[in-house]
Design brief:
Layout: H1 3-29, E1 45-53, E2 71-80, E3 86-89, E4 101-104, H2 109-144
Antiparallel strand pairs: 1-2, 3-4
Helix pairs in contact: 1-2
Length: 145
């Protein structure tokens, strides 16, 4: 695998983790949202990753270096939680039903914070890999001088 293909793999990982982090932040921001434009409480969202072939953006210039079949990661779909909302007895709440219950999203802030930390660490790992690859390319160029 060429160094340029490895850059593309790390870039795909960074993009996937960015999408995951965005959804986790959205979940945390809407943990108490009881009314959405679609009706009802907010529904928790999560991503499903899949392995995808990546093409090096440098393949047209360095066609001999590009390795066909390099695998990266991508978001195959965004899954919306289909479970019934959590119901809490709050008779004075504006969104309470006739029995005084309010439907809240099934968002666990502690779980989403741990997932967000994992997404941030995975993103940082891809940044470190790209930095190492950049250093390797720079040293290769220095050797050719």
């Amino acid at each position: 695998m060429s160094l340029f293909s490895v850059l593309s793999v790390s870039a795909s990982g960074m993009a996937a983790q960015r999408t995951r982090a965005e959804l986790l932040v959205e979940n945390l921001a809407n943990a108490e949202t009881t009314r959405t434009p679609e009706g009802g409480p907010y529904r928790r969202k999560d991503v499903v990753f899949e392995s995808r072939p990546v093409a090096s953006p440098f393949s047209s210039v360095f066609e001999a270096l590009a390795t066909p079949g390099a695998q990266g990661v991508g978001v195959s779909e965004v899954v919306v939680d289909g479970r019934e909302p959590e119901r809490k007895y709050l008779p004075g709440h504006p969104d309470a039903d006739a029995e005084g219950y309010v439907a809240f999203p099934r968002v666990n802030p502690a779980e989403d914070m741990v997932d967000l930390m994992g997404a941030a660490r995975n993103y940082q790992a891809n940044v470190a890999a790209m930095s190492a690859i950049k250093d390797m390319i720079q040293r290769s160029l220095d050797l050719l001088r």
